[in-house]
Amino acid sequence: MPLKELDCSNCGTKVRKRISEESINITNNxxxxxxxxxxxxNYSTCPYCKEKINHKTHVLLTYLDPPRxxxxxxxxxxxxxxxxxxxxxxxxxxxxxxxxxxxxxxxxGEPCNCLQFVLDEKQPQTCEEWLGLGKxxxxxxxxxxxxxxxKIDEKIPEAKKLMHQEMDKLKSxx
Length: 174
Prior knowledge:
With 174 residues, the chain is of the alpha/beta class. The protein has helices at 32-37, 80-90, 116-119, 127-136, 140-152, 157-173; strands spanning 3-7, 14-18, 23-25, 43-45, 52-54, 58-63, 68-74, 100-106.
Protein backbone atom coordinates (compact mmCIF):
# COMPACT_ATOMS: atom_id res chain seq x y z
CA MET A 1 0.00 0.00 0.00
CA PRO A 2 1.43 3.36 -0.99
CA LEU A 3 2.11 6.10 1.58
CA LYS A 4 0.13 9.26 0.86
CA GLU A 5 -0.09 12.68 2.48
CA LEU A 6 -3.64 13.77 3.27
CA ASP A 7 -4.82 17.22 4.38
CA CYS A 8 -7.48 17.59 7.05
CA SER A 9 -10.14 19.92 5.64
CA ASN A 10 -11.04 21.06 9.15
CA CYS A 11 -7.69 22.02 10.73
CA GLY A 12 -5.19 21.73 7.86
CA THR A 13 -3.08 19.05 9.56
CA LYS A 14 -1.09 16.91 7.15
CA VAL A 15 -1.46 13.21 7.85
CA ARG A 16 0.68 10.50 6.24
CA LYS A 17 -1.21 7.23 5.81
CA ARG A 18 -0.90 3.98 3.94
CA ILE A 19 -3.77 4.03 1.47
CA SER A 20 -5.45 0.85 0.27
CA GLU A 21 -5.89 0.06 -3.38
CA GLU A 22 -8.54 1.84 -5.42
CA SER A 23 -10.06 -1.52 -6.25
CA ILE A 24 -10.91 -4.44 -3.97
CA ASN A 25 -11.67 -7.87 -5.39
CA ILE A 26 -14.57 -9.18 -3.33
CA THR A 27 -14.38 -12.60 -4.98
CA ASN A 28 -10.93 -13.22 -3.48
CA ASN A 29 -11.63 -11.45 -0.19
CA UNK A 30 -15.25 -11.95 0.95
CA UNK A 31 -14.54 -10.79 4.53
CA UNK A 32 -14.04 -7.26 3.18
CA UNK A 33 -17.81 -7.12 2.58
CA UNK A 34 -18.28 -6.75 6.35
CA UNK A 35 -15.67 -3.96 6.45
CA UNK A 36 -17.46 -2.11 3.64
CA UNK A 37 -20.88 -2.42 5.35
CA UNK A 38 -19.39 -1.30 8.67
CA UNK A 39 -17.85 1.78 7.02
CA UNK A 40 -14.25 0.75 7.69
CA UNK A 41 -12.78 1.59 4.28
CA ASN A 42 -11.37 4.67 2.56
CA TYR A 43 -11.03 7.12 5.42
CA SER A 44 -8.80 8.18 8.28
CA THR A 45 -9.37 10.32 11.33
CA CYS A 46 -7.30 13.45 11.91
CA PRO A 47 -5.18 12.83 15.02
CA TYR A 48 -5.68 16.45 16.18
CA CYS A 49 -9.29 17.47 15.55
CA LYS A 50 -10.79 13.98 14.95
CA GLU A 51 -12.35 15.05 11.59
CA LYS A 52 -12.84 12.26 9.04
CA ILE A 53 -10.53 12.45 6.03
CA ASN A 54 -11.60 10.56 2.89
CA HIS A 55 -8.73 8.94 1.03
CA LYS A 56 -10.43 8.92 -2.39
CA THR A 57 -13.77 9.96 -3.87
CA HIS A 58 -14.54 6.37 -4.88
CA VAL A 59 -13.53 2.74 -4.37
CA LEU A 60 -14.21 -0.04 -6.84
CA LEU A 61 -15.44 -3.40 -5.54
CA THR A 62 -15.15 -6.19 -8.10
CA TYR A 63 -16.55 -9.67 -8.51
CA LEU A 64 -14.97 -12.03 -11.05
CA ASP A 65 -17.68 -14.53 -11.91
CA PRO A 66 -19.83 -13.10 -13.29
CA PRO A 67 -17.88 -9.88 -13.85
CA ARG A 68 -19.46 -7.14 -11.75
CA UNK A 69 -18.21 -3.73 -10.63
CA UNK A 70 -19.70 -1.81 -7.72
CA UNK A 71 -18.47 1.75 -7.32
CA UNK A 72 -18.69 3.04 -3.75
CA UNK A 73 -18.69 6.84 -4.14
CA UNK A 74 -18.63 9.74 -1.69
CA UNK A 75 -22.20 10.90 -1.01
CA UNK A 76 -21.41 14.50 -2.01
CA UNK A 77 -21.42 13.32 -5.66
CA UNK A 78 -24.90 11.76 -5.44
CA UNK A 79 -26.74 12.86 -8.57
CA UNK A 80 -27.70 11.20 -11.87
CA UNK A 81 -25.41 13.48 -13.90
CA UNK A 82 -22.29 12.49 -11.95
CA UNK A 83 -23.08 8.80 -12.33
CA UNK A 84 -23.77 9.01 -16.06
CA UNK A 85 -20.61 11.02 -16.80
CA UNK A 86 -18.53 8.75 -14.59
CA UNK A 87 -19.71 5.61 -16.39
CA UNK A 88 -19.08 7.20 -19.78
CA UNK A 89 -15.44 7.79 -18.90
CA UNK A 90 -14.61 4.62 -17.01
CA UNK A 91 -15.38 1.67 -19.33
CA UNK A 92 -14.24 1.65 -22.92
CA UNK A 93 -17.05 1.05 -25.42
CA UNK A 94 -15.49 -2.30 -26.34
CA UNK A 95 -16.29 -3.60 -22.81
CA UNK A 96 -19.79 -2.15 -22.61
CA UNK A 97 -22.30 -4.86 -21.73
CA UNK A 98 -19.59 -7.31 -20.61
CA UNK A 99 -19.27 -5.91 -17.10
CA UNK A 100 -22.29 -5.13 -14.93
CA UNK A 101 -21.70 -1.81 -13.15
CA UNK A 102 -23.49 -0.22 -10.24
CA UNK A 103 -22.84 2.90 -8.21
CA UNK A 104 -23.83 3.53 -4.62
CA UNK A 105 -23.25 6.67 -2.60
CA UNK A 106 -22.06 6.47 1.00
CA UNK A 107 -20.63 8.54 3.79
CA UNK A 108 -17.18 6.94 4.14
CA GLY A 109 -16.46 6.04 7.74
CA GLU A 110 -20.14 5.49 8.59
CA PRO A 111 -21.80 2.06 8.82
CA CYS A 112 -24.39 1.35 6.14
CA ASN A 113 -26.36 -1.87 6.56
CA CYS A 114 -28.32 -1.26 3.35
CA LEU A 115 -25.15 -1.93 1.36
CA GLN A 116 -25.84 -5.63 1.96
CA PHE A 117 -28.64 -5.39 -0.61
CA VAL A 118 -26.16 -4.27 -3.25
CA LEU A 119 -23.18 -6.42 -2.27
CA ASP A 120 -25.10 -9.64 -1.61
CA GLU A 121 -27.80 -8.91 -4.22
CA LYS A 122 -30.50 -9.53 -1.61
CA GLN A 123 -33.95 -8.00 -1.92
CA PRO A 124 -35.12 -5.56 0.79
CA GLN A 125 -38.16 -6.85 2.69
CA THR A 126 -39.34 -3.89 4.74
CA CYS A 127 -40.30 -0.33 4.02
CA GLU A 128 -37.29 0.91 6.00
CA GLU A 129 -34.92 -1.31 4.00
CA TRP A 130 -36.29 -0.01 0.67
CA LEU A 131 -35.99 3.54 1.95
CA GLY A 132 -32.41 2.94 3.10
CA LEU A 133 -31.43 1.39 -0.22
CA GLY A 134 -32.98 4.29 -2.12
CA LYS A 135 -30.81 6.70 -0.13
CA UNK A 136 -27.69 4.98 -1.53
CA UNK A 137 -28.78 5.27 -5.15
CA UNK A 138 -29.69 8.00 -7.59
CA UNK A 139 -32.02 8.46 -10.52
CA UNK A 140 -34.52 5.83 -11.60
CA UNK A 141 -33.09 3.17 -9.27
CA UNK A 142 -33.63 5.38 -6.22
CA UNK A 143 -37.16 6.27 -7.36
CA UNK A 144 -38.02 2.56 -7.72
CA UNK A 145 -36.84 1.93 -4.15
CA UNK A 146 -39.03 4.74 -2.82
CA UNK A 147 -42.00 3.39 -4.80
CA UNK A 148 -41.41 -0.06 -3.29
CA UNK A 149 -41.32 1.48 0.20
CA UNK A 150 -44.62 3.23 -0.51
CA LYS A 151 -46.18 -0.03 -1.76
CA ILE A 152 -45.52 -1.52 1.67
CA ASP A 153 -46.63 1.56 3.61
CA GLU A 154 -48.15 4.43 1.65
CA LYS A 155 -48.14 6.71 4.69
CA ILE A 156 -44.39 7.29 4.86
CA PRO A 157 -43.86 11.00 4.18
CA GLU A 158 -40.07 10.61 3.91
CA ALA A 159 -40.40 8.17 0.99
CA LYS A 160 -42.74 10.56 -0.85
CA LYS A 161 -40.47 13.52 -0.19
CA LEU A 162 -37.31 11.70 -1.31
CA MET A 163 -39.02 10.30 -4.40
CA HIS A 164 -40.11 13.80 -5.48
CA GLN A 165 -36.64 15.21 -4.79
CA GLU A 166 -35.09 12.51 -6.95
CA MET A 167 -37.62 13.13 -9.72
CA ASP A 168 -36.72 16.83 -9.60
CA LYS A 169 -33.01 15.96 -9.90
CA LEU A 170 -33.76 13.85 -12.96
CA LYS A 171 -35.78 16.67 -14.55
CA SER A 172 -33.07 19.24 -13.93
CA UNK A 173 -30.42 16.89 -15.28
CA UNK A 174 -32.31 16.14 -18.51
